[in-house]
Amino acid sequence: MIGAQQVVDIVLAEARRRGRADETIVLVTDRVDAALRWANNTMTTNGESTSRTTTVISIVRRDGRAHVGSVRSSAVAPSVLMDLVVASQAAAAAAPPARDSAPALPADTAPTDWDAPSPRTGVDAFGGVADALTRGFGGRETLFGYARHVVETTFVATSTGLRRRFTQPTGSVEINAKRDGASAWAGVGTPDFVDVPTDAMLEDLATRLSWAQRSVELPAGRYETIMPPSTVADMMIYLSWTMGGRGAQEGRTALSAPGGGTRVGEKLTSLPLTLYSDPQAPGLQCTPFVAVSGSSERASVFDNGMPIDRVDWIRDGVINALAYPRAAATEFDAPVAVGADNLLMTGGTASLADMVARTERGLLLTTLWYIRTVDPSVLLLTGLTRDGVYLVEDGQVTAAVNNFRFNESPLDLLRRASEAGVSEVTLPREWGDWATRAQMPTLRIPDFHMSSVSQAQ
């Protein structure tokens, strides 16, 4: 493949030559994937792949309005680039006026590493994980799972002279262990595989499987429940996806206020919890500028290349901000706010073990699965527990219990939470394929709603 920088130069030159667009935005993402899989205590497959995605966005301005055409391709032949420009400009000419129109961002000098090659990764990144797993294959548990490492380098360039570049490493390890009909899951996110705690993960899985030597059947109902960070992340990530300002202003979401407007300023919880995104968060760094091929209620193609800052979505228990691209912010007289590709929440000082020790009788979750919307007006979600729900009695885990279907809203969970533990970097189970950068506390919910018993094992 030719370099991504050459792709940018060819596209912008061809767009100028054809002259049918007032502005052109080019996004190029070079991606390298490496994966390792194992099953039945045996390594099964590993491999690497390289790909590129090129997006050409043409903007035609006429009569005070902007029209956008966005065309994307994974083809890498240079000859395809001319066709992308033609298709993008034709799509812009035929498009209706864009609702999210905003002025072009000003020129900005290219970063110092603009001309450097895109970094790579490979299966050798998994060496430490593979060594620990090989030792684990000799234990009592049967192990399944996979590790992946993705390195994406994104280039954003505009015809007005703006240049951005960022390399985003994303990795995860997920292990499922089985013994005597019981199963348990553990997962971590990692940008570089330097210090993945594989041995500790295997020890934790063995402990949980030992808890399952005794099992108890429980009916549906409301239970005091301890939600570890992974489960909290799954619920809060879903909340963050619904925090578009336009939808709330137009009365279409759970963040809409009765009678009009939004719920910004409403106190959700007496716990001093802050839910935020920050591209500079230590250990969870992510792309610090907008890079999108299509507009949504939370991001706009017109903002490509715009810096992303920290946003406190909930601050000290109060709804503090909603997502507004520049055009929506102007329309609704709100601050511009675009979320970074991570999500963090502050917490307290208690460890998970401390919270279990203070529980007279309740449930300890480990992971959630198959989360879907039931009622978007209140953000009521449903889903399943999976790979271990445990009974806590007098401060000790005494048995595994059956799985449940639950019905809960992340907004309502925050309202009812009675305790928050230490905030820890975690991997969400349900959304781990898309959201690996999360930091959440353990939450104690006095009356988590297990709506029905699930027969899933």
From TrEMBL:
Q: Metalloprotease TldD/E C-terminal domain: which residues?
A: 221-451
Renumbered to this chain, the signal peptide range is none
Which source organism does the UniProt entry give? Answer: Mycolicibacterium poriferae
Q: What name goes with this protein? A: Peptidase
InterPro entries, per the entry: Metalloprtase-TldD/E_C (IPR045569), TldD/PmbA_N (IPR035068), TldD/PmbA_sf (IPR036059)
**GO terms for molecular function, please?**
metallopeptidase activity
**Stored Pfam families:** PmbA_TldD_3rd
* Taxonomic path: Bacteria, Bacillati, Actinomycetota, Actinomycetes, Mycobacteriales
BP-aspect Gene Ontology terms: proteolysis
Disordered: region residues: 96-119
